[in-house]
UniProtKB/TrEMBL annotation:
The keyword Membrane applies. Coiled coil: none annotated. Keywords: Membrane, Transmembrane, Transmembrane helix. This is ABC transporter permease.
Length: 250
């Protein structure tokens, strides 16, 4: 598996997939920090809640970044017709999927760690203390949300020859992730994969009345994580079964 990961890494570097995803998530980070600046300085709001809640722009840009990344790493090989060669040499489509899934998952895990680390440093530089438990919950939630999107978008990238359709689905996911962010407080909203980043955020937006609001620590986060893990297991089983049935790739 390590050798397969090294090969995937080498192939992906040629497509500039990493740089595009990094730029998008850097935009998300800066967008969050700039747009939340006034809230962060407000004494009426929890500073940590302002930074780690279900209203951040990650819900918009995460689906877009993942769809672009998966599209590029798959389309590069499809254009070169290397999938047929790999299948002919005895490498199953499921193994191709697994190696690309591992690479993409590790990459977006790294993004989640770096993003959370930079936000935490930003908080410390402004005199706010971020508990380690909150940072870990943020990384875990963002990674699990990323993993569900990676599994689905990578599957679609392998079975859909027109990558423009996949990119359209990525932008649609980002749009609905942003528009429906307020719905992520509902326990059932995990069924929509593009809402994962908000669903698993440590803090949730809470409207007090028509003119005031705050961010409260999600008391059901443990249950949410459990439900989302079960959801991921179902997605993985269904996707792997469909890939196994597909056979060779075009």
């Amino acid at each position: 598996m390590v050798k397969a990961l090294q090969i995937e890494l080498l192939k992906s570097r040629r497509t500039r997939s990493f740089s595009i995803a990094v730029i998008l998530m850097l935009i998300a980070l800066l967008w969050n920090l700039v747009s939340l600046g006034s809230e962060f300085s407000s004494r009426q709001l929890d500073a940590v809640g302002v930074l780690f809640n279900n209203q951040t722009v990650n819900s918009l840009l995460l689906p877009i970044a993942i769809s672009i990344f998966t599209s590029r790493i798959v389309n590069n090989e499809r254009m070169g017709q290397t999938f047929k060669l790999q299948n002919a040499n005895g490498r199953s489509t499921l193994k191709i999927f697994d190696s690309k899934l591992l690479l993409t998952a590790l990459f977006f895990l790294l993004i989640a760690i770096v993003q959370t680390g930079l936000v935490t440093l930003y908080a410390y530089s402004h005199g706010a203390y971020v508990p380690l438990s909150i940072s870990l919950l943020q990384v875990t939630g963002q990674f699990l949300a990323s993993f569900s999107l990676i599994t689905l978008y990578l599957f679609l990238a392998l079975v859909i020859e027109k990558q423009g359709l996949l990119l359209s689905l990525g932008f649609m996911g980002g749009f609905f992730g942003l528009v429906l962010a307020s719905k992520t407080s509902a326990l059932w909203s995990f069924i929509l994969p593009f809402l994962g980043a908000g669903y698993l955020a440590p803090y949730k937006f809470n409207l007090i009345d028509g003119s005031s609001y705050n961010y409260v620590l999600d008391g059901c986060l443990g249950l949410r994580l459990l439900l989302y893990l079960l959801y991921l297991a179902i997605i993985a089983i269904v996707v792997r079964a469909m890939i196994a049935r597909k056979g060779t790739l075009a």
